[in-house]
Design brief:
- The complex is a heterodimer of chains A (637) and B (507).
- Chain A has a three-stranded mixed β-sheet.
- The longest helix of chain A is centred in the first third of the chain and has 32 residues.
- The termini of chain A are far apart.
- Chain A contains 26 helices and three strands.
- Among the domains of chain A are: 207 residues, no CATH class; 48 residues.
- Chain B has a domain of 229 residues.
- In chain B, a hairpin with a 4-residue loop joins strand 1 and strand 2.
- In chain B, helix 3 packs antiparallel against helix 5, helix 3 runs antiparallel to helix 11 and helix 7 runs antiparallel to helix 9.
- The chains are: A mainly alpha (637), B mainly alpha (507).
- At the A-B interface, helix 1, strand 2, helix 5, helix 6 and helix 24 of A face helix 7, helix 12, helix 14, helix 15 and helix 16 of B.
Chain lengths: 637, 507
């Protein structure tokens, strides 16, 4: 049962209009007199705040409806229709998309406000906010799209914004290369997405190519096609959400301004892949084999990224690898068909990871763009607000009991255990311990011990209120967002899971309470072990180690970037060079070369007859005339 | 006037161009005359587009017998298949006269003649008439490259001339074969395409004639491996000519395959569709890979254009309505992206006297409007959704998947290949550090910005509201597919897998 309501289509429109206005203003004035930052700042926040307001309206609208009727849709216009393919520019607000909508617009608005402080004085202030608005608009299209093709519009749109913002400081070649890498790797994923959509369309899309129609027709899929479609779509998710083997772009994406890392490369865009798998839960539930692939890739990514995270020294890279790792958890969840657990982790992760990035941004801001944690130390007295909020974020990330991350991560690990995926569960617990270790390694090195760079330390101070207030708000969320989905064992009733139920196709396993307790005890133990080791090693000052052996291997991220470069990038360029330097002039052109060669040879051959004696030519004439008369006499007779 | 709308669009520019060549006019007068004529054509084009009903049949039909003894007629008409090709040939043309302001008179005159002849080829419904316009449109191109081209223009002209003459001769021979076959089967002469599609051809000669047509059009498209004239010609030609070649003339090659080859040689077409679509995909990948190692921006775009043409041609060979509509849409969309990129490069060359990527850098800081416009056209060219480039490419990939999953997957790689060379070029030209050459780069002035603005708007309009275009072309694509491939599957199967020794056992 779905209801039509026109206003939901406005949600993405506000930030898109904002992007247009800001972009035009910046484009037309940036080489002359620059407009005041206040003007840009205010205009930039209007769109996101209006969208947040609409997200609230949508949420309460849905809440007022009976559970099974919680679908609001709006078809703005026919986007294109060819043969059996009919695609509407349509939007669908259901429990799943409305939840995404709420936290995307909420965190998006906060980060816009924070950025006014962080970006102050940048000569491309206006451009930054135009891109940020464009990003939010695209993200809302991605979330609200009523079918895969409309989702793809937002999907590519956020990819573009990600590229533009990673290469924001474009005078530095490395930043632009990081942007290119993000775009190209994402495009490889998008190739999977497009192919997946195409196969899906020919299999079951001819009676309507939006989620609700597809859901109805999903039972017509043959296993072969179904699994192919699921895996192809998952390639798309791997690109966007940085999973093995396409995770390599996300750590490099930290080249962009820190608020961008918080919003795009931690809280929202990178979770789009998880959202997509949840959106297609009606497919993945049917094909558990595809689900298992998703889950295993996810958990292995979590392990790999956590391993890399333990060795990093750049504060943003640590957070980037932890994002990859947490995304791995989410995929493990949706892969084993625990969709609501995955989405719940998306939700809590958005708060604590945005908080950690913004906190890291404040540290970087205070230390004049120093990002090396081995140059920091003792900052807790200089930056008390940042310290306190970041500790809350770190506790949430490492799954400290009763913080938001604890509940969401525990839900995933419990689901893995309960559904019999013990391998995934074991790795998951291990990664939980590693997460606690590397997170608090960062916290201790940055805020505790003695300052390592006295000069930077002296000048460090908390950021202005425009930046600290968003930190505090996010810290509240990071601490308490977990109560929204308390399991029964803690006296709750899984509010979010029940809220999401109409959008998802999932079964909650019923198992004994002892398994639930086992899951909780192990993850608390993993947390405790991880944080203790970090405390012992780093809380009282430590020197930067020189990594050897396995450590060196981990520090260099298993040389994956170098391997990719040698296996894909260089051969690609080499093939291009071979084609244009060798094949194109010498081989492909063969038919032209051959015909001109033939002409020359024929000319040379006929030259033999051109002897220059009249008597020879007279003989030619006689031969010719005789042949002619012979032919004529034949045809007359 | 209304009755002769198409004739006017054909002969107004041709006659104006010839008159310009005959009389001593100043450059400026020639340019302004050309601008006025093309704007008039543009308005006629828009009027035709708006009043086009899109029911699937021919509209604006003109038909007059011409050489009666051979059944050759002067037949013109527009349907959903030619509509967007016609738009590509009319809408962007006036820009050429406002961007390139200091060219000789002959340059402008030749542009006009080329436009008239191209519109003729697009509108012709008679095979012989089409052939004539096809030949005429090549002449101005020959002169423009040879007279006004770059430093290595003569070898480029020679190569393109040999190629096109070879193609034309093959087409002429095949055309005679088709006419004679019709005469044998029906006892009268005609070259009107509607009647020719009733022909039932078969056997070795039909295959030969099919390939003769295909080679002629493959050269123009260009389809791998007949593309080798393209990089030189596109690079050496003056930018306006490159634009005409890539944005319009290449499309006429694709269009001609749909218009003439598909209905007449439906059996051969179905039989060799896999081979031809492989040629399309191979060309896309090959030229896309070649593009990455180009040092000259224009040459890179030339390879990029060839790469896209591979995909556009592929849409024709997939023989389903999605892919065919995608091709018809992409024909216009490609003109708004790659075609316009050529114009931007021409503009950069005029300002900086270089197209070498390594000599550039940091233009975005100097010229934000130019950089933004360039970026938008570039994103359309790599097929970003909500720009003109996405819909067509997606429909072609979708159709290709249905036709043959393997070819569809190969076709999909265009998504990745395109961004690789484009982004790397954009990085080296617009980002990174500026140098003394780019330091003084002037941003688009008001009149230039206004010239390009309609195209930028069109890029978004075609991406966001493609249905306005698709609803006019889709019925014709449906009919074309239905008519050409309605034959019983058994008949195709029989032609595809001939039983060895079949004839011997007949008696």
């Amino acid at each position: 049962m779905e209801h039509t309501s026109t206003y939901i289509g406005l949600t993405p429109l506000f930030p898109l209009l904002g992007a247009l206005v800001l972009g035009l203003m910046h484009m037309l004035t940036c080489t002359k007199t620059r407009l005041p930052e206040k003007l840009y700042g205010v205009l930039a926040c209007v769109g996101p705040l209006l969208s947040f307001f609409l997200a609230l309206v949508i949420f309460y609208h849905l809440k007022g409806l009976p559970t099974e009727e919680r679908f609001l849709s709006h078809n703005a216009f026919t986007w294109f229709a060819v043969g059996d393919l009919h695609v509407n520019m349509g939007f669908l607000a259901d429990p799943l998309s409305s939840l995404m909508l709420l936290f995307v617009t909420f965190i998006g608005s906060l980060i816009h406000i924070y950025s006014i402080g962080y970006m102050a004085g940048d000569k491309n202030f206006g451009k930054f906010f135009a891109y940020l608005n464009l990003f939010l608009g695209s993200m809302l299209i991605l979330v609200l799209g009523s079918g895969p093709i409309v989702m793809f519009v937002g999907w590519e749109g956020v990819g573009l914004c990600s590229y533009l913002l990673i290469s924001f400081y474009s005078e530095d070649t490395d930043n632009v290369l990081a942007g290119n890498k993000a775009f190209i790797v994402n495009r490889i994923g998008d190739l999977g997405f497009v192919l997946g959509m195409s196969f899906l369309f020919w299999a079951i899309g001819t009676n309507g190519f939006d989620y609700l129609s597809l859901k109805v027709n999903a039972h017509n899929l043959t296993p072969a096609i179904g699994i192919t479609v699921c895996l192809l779509l998952f390639i798309g998710a791997c690109g966007k959400s940085a999973q093995i083997p396409l995770y390599v772009w996300l750590p490099d994406a930290m080249a962009g301004p820190t608020p961008v890392s918080a919003l795009i490369h931690a809280a929202t865009m990178v979770t789009a892949g998880v959202y997509m798998v949840a959106r297609f839960s009606f497919l993945y539930t049917h094909f558990p084999l595809a689900g298992s692939v998703v889950a295993w890739i996810g958990i292995l990514t979590a392990l790999l990224a956590a391993t890399f995270g333990m060795f990093q020294k750049d504060i943003k890279k640590i957070l980037a690898y932890s994002t990859v790792s947490q995304l791995g958890y989410m995929f493990a969840a949706v892969g084993i068909a625990a969709y609501s657990a995955g989405i719940f982790h998306v939700f809590t992760h958005a708060f604590f990871k945005a908080l950690l990035f913004l906190g890291a941004g404040s540290v970087i801001y205070a230390l004049h763009h120093q990002q090396d944690i081995w140059q920091m130390g003792g900052l807790k007295d200089k930056m008390p607000t940042t310290y306190k909020t970041m500790v809350i974020g770190a506790l949430a990330l490492s799954g400290a009991p009763l913080f938001s991350g604890f509940f969401s991560k525990d839900e995933i690990l419990f689901s893995a255990l309960a559904s019999g995926h013990s391998g995934i569960w074991i790795i998951g617990v291990l990664v939980a311990g590693m997460t606690a270790y590397y997170t608090f390694r960062m916290i201790f090195l940055v805020f505790h011990g003695e300052p390592r760079d006295k000069d930077l330390y002296e000048h460090a101070k908390d950021a202005p209120p425009l930046m600290t207030i968003p930190l505090i708000i996010l810290a509240v969320g990071a601490a308490f967002a977990g109560v929204l989905n308390l399991p029964a064992i803690f006296g709750g009733s899984l509010t979010i899971s029940h809220w999401l139920a109409p959008s998802l196709v999932e079964h909650h396993p019923h198992v004994s309470i002892w398994i639930e307790i086992l899951a909780i005890v192990t993850s608390v133990a993993a947390f405790a072990i991880g944080i203790t080791i970090a405390y012992k090693k780093f809380a009282h000052g430590a020197e930067e180690p020189v990594y050897t052996g396995l450590g060196k291997f981990g520090y260099n991220k298993f040389y994956v970037d170098e391997i990719y470069n040698a296996v894909f990038v260089q051969p690609y360029k080499a093939v291009g060079a071979v084609i244009s330097k060798f094949l194109e002039p010498n081989v492909t052109d063969i038919h032209v070369k051959l015909s001109s060669w033939l002409y020359q040879k024929a000319g040379k051959a006929f030259k033999v007859f051109q002897v220059g004696y009249i008597r020879v030519y007279a003989i030619y004439m006689v031969i010719g005339l005789s042949l002619m008369s012979l032919f004529l006499s034949h045809s007359i007779n | 006037m209304f009755e002769y709308a198409l004739s006017v669009m054909i002969f107004l520019p041709i006659v104006t161009g010839l008159v310009m060549l005959l009389f001593p006019l100043s450059k400026e007068t020639a340019r302004i005359t050309g601008f006025i004529v093309t704007v008039a054509i543009l308005f006629r084009g828009i009027e035709i587009f708006l009043s086009f009903t899109g029911t699937g049949g021919m509209e604006y039909v003109e038909s007059r017998s011409w050489i009666q003894s051979l059944g050759i007629s002067y037949g013109l008409g527009i349907d959903g298949i030619s509509l967007l090709v016609l738009m590509a040939g009319t809408v962007l043309f006036p820009m050429l006269f406002t961007i390139f302001k200091t060219q000789p008179k002959g340059y402008y005159a030749n542009l006009l003649i080329a436009q008239g002849a191209m519109i003729g080829a697009i509108c012709a419904t008679d095979l012989v008439l089409f052939y004539i316009f096809w030949e005429v449109m090549l002449l101005p191109i020959f002169f423009m490259i040879g007279l006004y081209g770059g430093s290595k223009r003569l070898p480029a002209t020679l190569k393109i001339t040999i190629y096109t003459i070879a193609g034309s001769l093959l087409m002429l021979a095949a055309l005679v074969y088709v006419g004679v076959s019709y005469h044998t089967q029906f006892g009268k002469w005609t070259f009107a395409i509607v009647q020719l599609s009733e022909l039932e051809l078969g056997g070795g000669f039909a295959v030969l004639a099919f390939f003769m047509f295909m080679v002629a059009f493959a050269i123009k498209i260009p389809l791998f491996p007949f593309h080798t004239w393209l990089p030189d010609a596109y690079t050496e030609a003056p930018t306006a000519t490159t634009f005409v070649l890539s944005a319009i003339m290449a499309k006429i090659g694709v269009y001609a395959v749909i218009r003439f080859v598909m209905p007449v040689f439906e059996i051969e077409f179905a039989r060799f569709a896999v081979l031809l679509s492989l040629a399309g995909v191979t060309g896309m990948i090959y030229c896309g890979l070649a593009a990455i190692s180009q040092k000259d921006m224009k040459r890179m775009l030339a390879f990029s254009s060839a790469s896209h043409m591979g995909i556009i041609a592929l849409g024709v060979f997939c023989m389903n309505v999605q892919a065919l509509t995608g091709t018809l849409f992409q024909i216009a969309a490609h003109a708004t992206s790659t075609g316009v990129l050529f114009l931007f490069v021409g503009l950069m060359e005029e300002r900086m006297q270089t197209r070498k990527i390594e000599n550039l850098g940091g233009i975005a800081y100097r010229a934000p409007i130019f950089a933004t416009f360039f970026a938008i056209a570039m994103l359309a060219s790599v097929g970003l959704p909500a720009t003109s480039g996405f819909i067509g490419e997606f429909l072609i990939i979708l159709g290709a998947i249905k036709f043959n999953a393997f070819i569809g997957i190969l076709a999909g790689t265009t998504l990745v290949i395109g961004v690789c060379y484009m982004l790397w070029m954009f990085q080296r030209v617009f980002f990174e550090r500026s140098n003394e050459r780019t330091e003084n780069f002037q941003d688009l002035n008001l009149s230039e910005a206004l010239t390009f603005l309609p195209v930028i708007v069109l890029i978004f309009a075609m991406g966001i509201f493609p249905q306005a275009f698709i609803k006019k072309i889709e019925p014709a694509a449906q009919q074309q597919i239905a008519k050409a491939f309605a034959m019983p599957q058994a008949q195709v199967a029989e032609t595809i897998v001939p039983t060895p020794g079949h004839n011997n056992h007949k008696e």
